C-alpha cells in the first residue's frame, strides 16, 4: 500500500463484536473487486452492467491500494465491504484538493446489508482523515445511492451542489462535504 495518507494508517485495525475494519490485504484485492462490482450491479448503479466503463475501475483494487488507503470490513475471513480513501497527490482524487481527503467506491456485500458495515467504513475514513490533519472531506455519489446518502448525512456530511458533476451524459453525481 502506498504511503499516500497519514503515518501509521497501514497498521490500523478497529473492531466491534460483529466485524473489524482494517486495511485490505493484497490477497483480498480480487475478492474486494468482485464484491464492489457485485454491490454496484445489485444496487443498479452500473448503467451498462458488467460492460459499464466504470466496472474495471471498481474491480482494480490493486491500483486503488497502490494510490490510496483501502479499508475493508471483515467478519472472520469473510469480506463484508470496502472503501477507498484518497489524499492529495492521489490520482484517485476527483473532487478533493489540497488539505482534503476523498471517500471513493464505498461498497457493502448485499448479504451484509443492515449490519452497519457502510457506516463503519465511512466513519473509519473520517477518523483517518482527522488524524491526518485534513481540513475537509469530499465525496460524490449517484443520486440513487440513498442508503449511502443517509450514512454520509449521519456523519455530518452536507450536500455541496456546486461540486456536482456528470462523468457521462446519463450520470449525475451529487457532491457531499464535511468540515473537520
UniProtKB/TrEMBL annotation:
Organism whose genome encodes this protein: Glycomyces artemisiae
Domain N-acetyltransferase: 19-180
Keyword presence, Acyltransferase: yes
Stored PANTHER family: AMINOALKYLPHOSPHONATE N-ACETYLTRANSFERASE-RELATED-RELATED
Transmembrane segments: none
Pfam families: Acetyltransf_1
Name assigned to this protein: Acetyltransferase (GNAT) family protein
Superkingdom to which the source organism belongs: Bacteria
GO MF terms, alphabetically ordered: acyltransferase activity, transferring groups other than amino-acyl groups
Keywords recorded for this protein, A-Z: Acyltransferase, Transferase
Keyword Mitochondrion: no
